[in-house]
Amino acid sequence: xxxxxxxxxxxxxxxxxxxxxxxxxxxxxxxxxxxxxxxxxxxxxxxxxxxxxxxxxxxxxxxxxxxxxxxxxxxxxxxxxxxxxxxxxxxxxxxxxxxxxxxxxxxxxxxxxxxxxxxxxxxxxxxxxxxxxxxxxxxxxxxxxxxxxxxxxxxxxxxxxxxxxxxxx
Length: 169
What we know:
This is Lachrymatory factor synthase. It comes from Lithocarpus litseifolius. One of its GO terms (molecular function) is protein phosphatase inhibitor activity. InterPro entries: LFS (IPR053249), Polyketide_cyclase/dehydratase (IPR019587), START-like_dom_sf (IPR023393). By secondary structure, the protein is an alpha+beta fold. Helix content is about 20%, strand content about 40%. Strands 1-7-6-5-4-3-2 form a 7-stranded antiparallel β-sheet. The radius of gyration is 18 Å and the shape is globular.
């Protein structure tokens, strides 16, 4: 086996959700607010800026969630965290991309992209939110489980964003 190289395939996936009423113009400010992920994603406890200029490429956010597991009557609390660097943000195209630069959850490389677009030509009611990613396989996880997490997370985020926007109309 000496001299042979083993290449691991990258995982690539995308989740999409459509909102019937809020427009892309209304939803985009919630998505582009890179340090407020915890407001929209129920599994995130905290999200804050640790480096760079807010809203500018190069900015780094710290994202964390606390999990509690039980084993043999003992509860164990663990904080799962990641540092994520904003790579690109385009308010005209309503998209941003970021990479995980450090974490304790087994990610070796991860680049995510979020896009908000109208679902009607007139730009009025309705929009689509897409969350796509490319990453190395994550140890201890199957691709299907990771993609399911992304899909569920996006659905939860979209519902919270829609509820917040509709409550202010």
